[in-house]
UniProtKB/TrEMBL annotation, chain A:
It is found in: Golgi apparatus. This is ADP-ribosylation factor-like protein 3. Its main location: Golgi. GTP binds at G15, L16, D17, N18, A19, G20, K21, T22, G61, N117, K118, Q119, D120. It comes from Trichoplax adhaerens. One of its GO terms (cellular component) is microtubule cytoskeleton. It comes from the Eukaryota.
Automatic annotation (TrEMBL), chain B:
Transmembrane segments: none annotated. PROSITE patterns: ELMO (PS51335). InterPro entries: ELMO_dom, ELMO_domain-containing. It comes from Trichoplax adhaerens. GO terms for molecular function: GTPase activator activity. Pfam families: ELMO_CED12. The lineage of its organism: Eukaryota, Metazoa, Placozoa, Uniplacotomia, Trichoplacea. Residues 112-267 form the ELMO domain. This is ELMO domain-containing protein.
Length: 213, 279
């Protein structure tokens, strides 16, 4: 497998069908979201930020396509898991699916960011309700965060928000790279990455995310 | 340049176009280009505005170009200019009409929408009754899950209307394609692919790439004819997909793009999209 450059991050966007993955992808890439169709296969977009290239892979969520998700696990830096917060009937299904993903060897330790999408709908469950439902608090083997959002309005997704999701993803990736490099490549490699990311970290330290420890 | 020609021949560009172009498509294309680049704003507007009365527009052009439209010498020109304008205006109206349908969201509380959806099932699977409205059976005809409602998305009612049009008018072909879509290796989700092809037909229309199809054929740009373009796409895509021998569904976007480019090429060279299967 081609070695990725330190500036290239691989982000995997998964979730059930109709969760809003493609809309989030397009929103992150500042593209029009009016003509979206159900994803057959996958979509990929590259988002540039703070000198990093986030290669975001959005794979179809239809049951038939889910067995192929594993083809995309390799070298993932952050897993983004999208949930339709208004589709309460499928909370069990989406919880099981997420549980299966977290059990995958190839995704071991990889940080997960859960997007509690469709917050614009009246019937949407809150982020904390979803976190409870999915037992996110029981996750011990990786860092995780949950973000309430609405891909259609841009709330929680648009980069102009106070908490920019791209920075959040970036910080989670860098933290993961640092941790895994310290384990596999020694402290020096980890420090190299830290130095590269220094500017970005200081720029966004206001987020108060204590990621580098 | 135009003014030199005008002085030399005593005719305006539109008259020269109508005289020299024998083929309707060439004529309409050239007239549209000429009007679109005119110095007079009211002439440019004819090509872009909606709800234009062709007779009024022709009269207006004649006045601006100082052509006596009542004189018998010019009757041939007036007649062929009218034909061009009809083609240009119908295309704009079609775009508007299609946009209205596309922007209508599928609504399960709307009886008409629901009836249409059930019709699709009955036409495709006459021997297999749908047990209930929310049912995993919908995946058999290629929806993603138990409720097709969420699959129409950005294509709105247009996606459903075209699937129904196709299965209603070419029922046997549609059932054959459904059986192809169940192939163990080259299978795909028929309804979802259908919605993707609605998106393709829609984009071709909006980007004006479909103009040659309507300008060079004898058919006028009606909604019915637009749906026929969709039928063409679904039939041709099905055979293209199998001929590409895809490893699995994951390369769908790649093959769809190849197919789109091939269709664009056809619109450039053959201009009119026709499928033998649908004749």
């Amino acid at each position: 497998m081609k070695k990725q450059s330190n500036k290239d991050l691989r982000i995997l966007l998964l979730g059930l069908d109709n969760a809003g993955k493609t809309t989030i992808l397009k929103k992150l890439a500042s593209e029009d979201i009016n003509h979206i169709t159900p994803t057959q296969g996958f979509n990929i977009k590259t988002v540039q930020s703070s000198g990093f290239r986030l290669n975001v892979w959005d794979i179809g969520g239809q049951r038939k396509i889910r067995p192929y998700w594993r083809n995309y696990f390799e070298n993932t830096d952050v897993l983004i898991y999208v949930i339709d917060s208004a589709d309460r009937k499928r909370f069990d299904e989406t919880g099981e699916q997420l549980g299966d993903l977290l059990d995958e060897d190839k995704l071991a330790g990889i940080p997960v960011l859960v997007f509690a999408n469709k917050q614009d709908l009246l019937s949407a469950a809150s982020a904390s309700e979803i976190a409870e439902n999915l037992n996110l608090h029981k996750i011990r083997d990786r860092k995780w965060q949950i973000q309430a959002c609405s891909a259609t309005t841009g709330e929680g997704i648009s980069v102009c928000n106070k908490i920019n999701p791209v920075n959040r993803i970036l910080l989670m990736s860098i933290d993961w790279r640092f941790t895994s490099c310290c384990v596999y490549g020694g402290k020096n490699v980890g420090q190299l990455i830290i130095r590269e990311s220094m500017i970005c970290i200081s720029e966004y330290s206001y987020l108060g995310l204590d990621l580098i420890s | 340049m135009k003014s030199i020609y005008r002085w030399l021949t005593g005719t305006c560009e539109l008259q020269r176009i109508c005289k020299s172009c024998n083929e309707t498509g060439d004529r309409t294309t050239a007239v549209e280009k000429s009007l679109g680049t005119s110095k007079t704003e009211s002439l440019r507007k004819i090509t872009t505005s909606l709800g234009i009365n062709v007779n009024d527009a022709v009269q207006h052009i004649a006045v601006v170009k100082k052509i006596n439209h009542e004189s018998s010498i010019n009757s041939e020109f007036i007649c062929s200019l009218s034909k061009c304008l009809v083609q240009i205006c119908t295309y704009s109206q079609l775009k508007d009409h299609v946009e209205t349908i596309r922007s209508t969201t599928y609504d399960s509380n709307n009886k008409q929408h629901e009836t249409m959806l059930m019709k699709l099932w009955d036409l495709l699977c006459p021997d297999n009754q749908l047990e209930q409205r929310i049912s995993p059976q919908w995946t058999e005809i290629g929806f993603q899950g138990s409720n097709p409602e969420t699959d129409f998305r950005g294509m709105g009612l247009l996606g459903l209307e075209q699937l129904v049009y196709f299965t209603e008018n070419y029922t046997q072909v549609a059932r054959k394609i459904l059986s192809h879509s169940h192939h163990p290796t080259y299978g795909y989700s028929m309804a979802i692919v259908g919605i993707h092809l609605t998106n393709m037909a829609y984009s071709l229309l909006v980007s004006n790439a479909l103009k040659p199809h309507f300008y060079y054929s004898n058919v006028s740009a009606t909604l019915d004819e637009f749906h026929k373009v969709y039928c063409y796409l679904i039939v041709e895509f099905d055979s293209f997909w199998r001929s590409e021998k895809p490893e699995n569904i994951l390369i769908f976007n790649e093959i769809k793009e190849k197919f789109r480019l091939k269709t664009l090429q056809k619109l450039k060279t053959l201009r009119v999209l026709r499928s033998f299967e649908l004749m």
